[in-house]
Design a protein that fits this description.
The chain has 144 residues and is of the alpha+beta class. The chain has 2 domains: 68 residues, no CATH class; 56 residues, Nucleic acid-binding proteins (OB fold (Dihydrolipoamide Acetyltransferase, E2P), Beta Barrel), CATH 2.40.50.140. Helix 1 packs antiparallel against helix 2 and helix 2 packs antiparallel against helix 3. It is rod-shaped and about 75 Å long. The N and C termini lie far apart (75 Å).
Length: 144
């Protein structure tokens, strides 16, 4: 029976090559790198198979999470680059939702600053949408 080191090396090679033919956002590649690390650890003294599998799973998870954190595209600095104007229909209390008139329809809205309330019939900028709720900031906040 082949050693666990050889099995981990083959698994690492297969996973890394899989990334070439079936792109998976580097997940298969990172799992292959983890398999190579476990192969090295099994050569150094990590003999238990279940411990090797546990190390491989943990290392793969950590590498995928770290790659998502550092390889994600940077978000825009300005929230208002694509902002559009709306008008509050009801008061939006601090941390609560209210209603705004946006593109001719009434939408549920919440202020981007949870500590800030907005009076009715005020112009606001829509900075983003979360589901069916618009996130807005008051126009006067930008002009102060």
């Amino acid at each position: 029976m082949p050693s666990f080191t050889l099995i981990w090396l083959i698994a690492g090679a297969v996973l890394c090559l899989m990334e070439l033919f079936l792109p998976s956002a580097f997940i298969a590649f990172l799992m292959g790198i983890s398999a190579f690390v476990v192969a090295l650890l099994s050569q150094v003294g990590l003999r238990s198979l279940w411990l090797q599998v546990l190390v491989w799973l943990l290392l793969s998870t950590v590498l995928v999470v770290l790659s998502r954190r550092f390889l994600q595209p940077r978000r825009r600095k300005s929230k208002l680059q694509d902002a559009v104007i709306a008008e509050t229909l009801t008061e939006i209390l601090a941390g609560k939702t209210g209603r705004v008139l946006y593109e001719g329809n009434s939408w549920q809205a919440r202020c981007d600053d949870d500590k800030l309330g907005i009076a009715p019939h005020q112009r606001v900028y829509v900075v983003r949408r979360e589901g069916t709720t618009l996130i807005v900031i008051p126009e006067n906040l930008l002009h102060s």
